[in-house]
Write a structure and sequence with these properties.
With 118 residues, the chain is of the alpha+beta class. It contains one helix and eight strands, in the order αββββββββ. The protein has a four-stranded antiparallel β-sheet with strand order 1-8-3-6, with no helix packed on it. A four-stranded antiparallel β-sheet has the order 2-7-4-5, with no helix packed on it. The longest helix has 18 residues. It is globular and about 35 Å long.
């Protein structure tokens, strides 16, 4: 019985880690690739890789930044994220997600993913 409990706790912890938000500090001079280029190049792990999902981007700071969605080198959308606001953006298979600062000051962002249909 104890082993079963430990297995359940371990599975729960692994699932929680896959869903945990990732927090980034954006330097005012850099864009950051969050997802779309593949292992070793993406800044976040998308647990829904290979399927359409939602990217949930939260601005944790006081500086405006933008979310840029690209596919095959073409900009698909640019979504501004106001300070202390959250944007939920549909991210299709094959798209790249970037965070772009809009000022020279540092910005803080949280990135998470949700399964479509939740």
């Amino acid at each position: 019985m104890r082993r079963l409990f430990l297995v359940i706790v371990a599975v729960y912890c692994c699932q929680y880690q896959m869903q945990a938000q990732t927090v980034f500090e954006l330097d005012g001079n850099q864009s950051m690739l969050m997802i779309g280029k593949g292992p070793g190049q993406d800044a976040t792990i998308n647990p829904f890789q290979g399927e359409d999902c939602f990217a949930v981007i939260e601005n944790l700071g006081d500086e405006l930044f933008s979310v840029r969605i690209q596919q095959e080198g073409e900009i698909v959308a640019i979504v501004p994220v106001q300070p202390q606001q959250t944007e939920k953006i549909k991210l299709l298979v094959g798209q790249e997600l970037y965070l772009d600062p809009e000022t020279k000051n540092k910005a803080r962002a949280s990135v998470d993913y949700e399964k479509i249909g939740n």
